[in-house]
Specification:
With 153 residues, the chain is mostly helical. It has 9 helices and no strands.
């Protein structure tokens, strides 16, 4: 099989797979260390196909943040927060995007995320793991460190 036919087959398969399967596969690729730059188009496609999926928008915002694209991250995080206002990770992504792009109004997002993670242990653990992941992938990420300290200190 040629490379061209393999790529065509992969595209056809991606187009016919349920969006939930594509999301799970893309998330697994991220966990295996694939770069945010290569995953951004995948998550943009997932968001286009499942426009009301807050987790997809949250992931896309995170990838944009890791790829130093705070304005795009801001737009994606806004959509995630609009779809699920109680998602602390969506709020954290929005706060980081706002800090990275020099916007004001971060406090309400941080405070709400802080309240949620203080009450829901499962979400607290998930958010802590995401902070650790972000610092592993981008060790000098000052806005991530600031938001982390605001939420957990």
């Amino acid at each position: 099989m040629t490379t061209e036919s393999t790529e065509t087959l992969a595209t056809q398969t991606a187009e016919t797979l349920p969006v939930e399967t594509l999301f799970d596969q893309a998330l697994q690729r991220y966990r295996e260390g694939e770069s945010p730059a290569t995953l951004i188009p995948v998550f943009r496609d997932i968001c286009a196909r499942a426009a009301k999926s807050s987790p997809a928008w949250t992931c896309l915002a995170w990838l944009y943040l890791l790829n130093d694209q705070p304005k795009s991250a801001y737009k994606a995080a806004q959509k995630a927060v609009k779809l699920n206002p109680e998602d602390p990770q969506a709020r954290i992504n929005l706060a980081i995007a706002m800090l990275d792009s020099g916007q004001k109004g971060v406090r309400p997002h941080v405070e709400l995320a802080q309240q949620i993670v203080s009450v829901v242990a499962e979400l607290r653990e998930e958010v802590q793991a995401n902070f650790a992941d972000g610092l592993q992938r981008k060790p000098d990420w000052s806005s991530l460190k600031r938001v982390q300290s605001w939420i957990f200190e």
